[in-house]
Amino acid sequence: MNARAFRAEHQYLQRDVFLKVYDYVEGAAAEVLQEPRVLKEATTDPGSPHLVQIFEADIIAAGKDKVLCLQMEYVDGPSLLTELERGQVGQQDAVRLTTGILQGLLHLHSRNIVHRDLKPANILAVQGIARITDFGSARVLPGGSTSVAASKHSILYVPPEGFESPSRYSNKSNVYQVGVVLYELVNGPMVYDPSHYLLSADTKALEQGGKKYAELDDYEKTLLQNNGIHVLAKRRRLLEHGRPAAPYYSDRIRKIVRAATHPDEEQRIDASDFIQKLGQVSVPNWVRQPDGSFLCRNWHDRDWKVSHGQKGLRVLRSRPLEENYRQLKKLGAPATVAEAFDTIENL
Question: How many CB atoms lie within 10 A of CB 14?
C-alpha cells in the first residue's frame, strides 16, 4: 500500500533479496533513514529467528527521482494468512506459532521498537517457524516515551487505544494484535470487509436521517466502519463477530486471548506473560477436514476424529497413522459437538 516490492538478486553476494522501494522527499535523509538503521541493528546484530532480517537501507537515484530502497532477506515461505485460507493450522500449532511471534516481538521491544501492523499477512511461516516481516509501520519509541501515534493500517487489528484522540500505540498494543492473530490461527480468518462491522444503531440512525450507507462517500463509510470496529473491540465482541469460534476452541486458549485483547491497555497482559501462559497450554491439535469433520493426531497416543452428520455425532479414534478408526464407547454419548471436544481435551 505504501511501497513497491520486488524480488531481486544481489549481484555481488549472489543471493535473492526482497526490496521495498519508497518515494523519497529531497532533504529528508536523516529522518527517513533513522528507523531503517535501527531496524537493521535489531534484526541482524544479533537478530532473532522470528524476525526477517533487514540488510541495508539506501537512498538511490531512479532516473530524475530518488527513492528509499530497503533491502531485506528474501524468505521463501507462505504468510500465515495463506495458511489460514488453506485451513491447515492446527490448534496446538497456533500456540507454537504465536509463541514464536511473541519471541520476535520481545526482541523488537528490547530495542524500543513497536511494529504497529502485526497481522497474518505480515507473518511468514517457514518450516513451522513464525517470522515477522513488513516493518513499514514500525516506529522507534522516543527517549522516555512508552507510546507513539497509532497506525490506522489494517483497521481490524487496531487496539481500542488506537482509536482514541490522541491515538497511542505501545508495546501492549502489539500484544493486542498478537491476541487477534492467535484467535484467527485457531478459528480461521475473520471477515476482512470493514462493512461487516457496521453497527445496527449507526445504520438505523442513517436511515432515520434519510440516508443509505451505499450512498455515502468513502470518507463517511470509513468513519462508520471504524466506529463499528472500535465499539465492538471495546465491548470484547469483535473477534467472534468477525469469525465465530470453532467448536473445538479450547477454554485454555480463550482465556489467554481475552487477556491479550483486553480493551483496557492497563489490564492487558504483556508479551512475557503471554509467552508464559502459552507455555502451559497443551491441547488437541484439531484441524477441520474438507468433509466437515475434525481430525487431531497423536493426542494421548491416539488419532481422533469428530464428525456430525446424517449418522449423528460420532467420536472415533485410531492408533497413530493407522487410519483404523472405531467408535469410542467409553466416552458415553456427548450431547453436543462442543461437549465431545471438551471431553477429549480433558482425558
Answer: 7
